[in-house]
Protein 1
Amino acid sequence: MLEQNNRPFVGKPVKLNYMWRDVERRANRYGIPFKSIPTYPVDPEELANRVAVVASLEGWCPVYTKAIYRTWFLENKVPGDVEDLRLLLSQLGKDSDTTIARANSQAIRDRYASETEVAKELGIFGSPTFMWGSEFFWGDDRFEDAIEWSKSHAN
């Protein structure tokens, strides 16, 4: 996001306020409590993302992703804060010291960098992105479009 100057709301208070109001409306639509605007942007060291790489390799990424977003959006805990991350990992039954050490290892840093390069080569610039062949759909509000496209273009 930094390379592409893709922090669309930073330094734009009117747009930022709209975005958070929109998030609140969407959360209400899905029955998710929205207590306050969470800290944004977060995780400058990308630790939470590297933990996601570990989680992906070990098969617990969906659980981790839901938990990290829940704690960020509903509890306003910063994903990249080491102590908040330790607590979350412990709640997930993971050894936080081992997981964070692995996330900070050169092997995981290299894997994260490599996967980021693949995403950039595919033209991905944000999350969530849904892919079907070379077609991609960005944003949670494009999920239904991605499903419809995949159904209409399935072999």
Protein 2
Amino acid sequence: MAYPTVSAPYGFKPINRFDGMPYAGATMLMAVTSGQAVYTGQVVKQVAGGTISPVADLNQESLYAVGVVTGVQYTNSTGHTVQAQYAPASGVTNVLAYVVVDPAANFKVAVTNSSSAMSTVTAAVVGANILGLTGTGSATTGDINSSVIASSAAATDTHLFRIIAVVPETAASATTYTEVIVKFNGTWHQMLSTTGTALS
């Protein structure tokens, strides 16, 4: 049987909740830290002052995050409000991001190696935790090419993401998968963590 091919990573895409309920598109509109570009599919964290910034390196242990960006709003140089896939780091003001902050949200994401080349995992990774790659944002598509790193899947409590399932529709073979479904590991989600953001 031929499967659809995933040729490149595409960021984190919200699809449903891990409790089985459908994802209803709920987001929180959050101010973006000045001078920060943000892209759809990007993992962000809340920082001092209540704004959000991109998580700089998803391939690290013990990272905190608040959610995933699904779009932005900003004021352009002519004073018009723009709804867009991404916001540049400069030339715009009043930048707000639509962020999926639900700790129960599941995200579909591509599996890569540590150099961002497509890779695969087996179903044995379900239930493990995994690290990610931040990737690079595209001004053309407005998306970021974040992914998760196949070789990092492990039973460790310091990885940011928990693997909920593999995606059979885009399997590379009968037993290997190029996409997985993940959620934030509850320890590191800022809406659940008992460690608060520092006051500014």
Protein 3
Amino acid sequence: MSDIVVHGVPGSPFVRSVEMGLHEKGAAYRLQAISLGETKSEAYLKKNPFGRVPLFEHGDFSLYETQAILRYLDDVFPEPPFEPADARAAARMNQIIGINDWYFFQKVAAVVVGQRIVGPALLGRKTDEAVIAAALPMGQTCIMEFDRLIGFEPFLAGSSLSIADLVLAPPLDFLMATPEGRALIEGTRLEDWLKRMNSRPSMLATQRPEVLRQTG
């Protein structure tokens, strides 16, 4: 049995980012699927007091926060590298990660996907159209900026896959399953980038559960 264990809720974009990283590194691991409720249990909070996923264990070493996990994987499994050697490309990677974490995921992808797919499919909630509408201006800003930053490179930070690609692909793919996401992304350079990402074995091996693959 692998000594790498990823504890996470299936379908979480953050869990998928870590799983993709492990696939890209060719590192064996085991996914310990948990429910949303379990992240607030006393046992889980002892390992991650913030009650978020994923929780990563490598032998006796425990780690949370997706960026930290991916950077750890890059140190422990150096090939292929996830961080550009060029200082400007590395800075661009970190900029894109920051945009995703602070603006795109929290204020756009999580909101729209939550209202269109996760809430109705898993929680029996009705979609609040006003909440979606309020998220779209930030969505437009984020997509336009990602489109500008990728330019004509094959990956977000240059000629090779980086942590930025691993972090952004899962939530962007999820958002693309909604009509609002398609309207934002279609016709941009991100559309072709996402198609290339979706053809990678790491994306194909880490699909969302069927109930979350429906179109919102």
